[in-house]
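The records we work with from here on pair a chain with its fold. These numbers are not coordinates but entries in a learned vocabulary of local backbone shapes. To see the layout at work, look at the sequence and tokens printed below:
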Amino acid sequence: MTNKTVKTTTKAKKPQPTVAPRPRAVHKKFQGVVVSDKMEKTLVVKVERIKLHPKYHKRYVVSRNYKVHDESGLYHTGDRVSFVECRPLSKEKRWRVVKDNR
């Protein structure tokens, strides 16, 4: 028997690309006043914001109504609520009320 050394060739492994974890979704969050609570589990919330005119630099109020999902039915006309963006719940409803200390 002869002593032969056996050479083993190992292929260098290519480094695998590291996959970063997906960031959590950032949801839009608004506050407004309930304008209507006549529908079941749905509120109409008016959100007002102040804009600045680009030329004349005058401040003016712009408002928009959002249809917001209220599962518990706690809120009524005149209440101030916070709500966030969510998956589409109906044709116009893409917002849900954020639970607070109520």
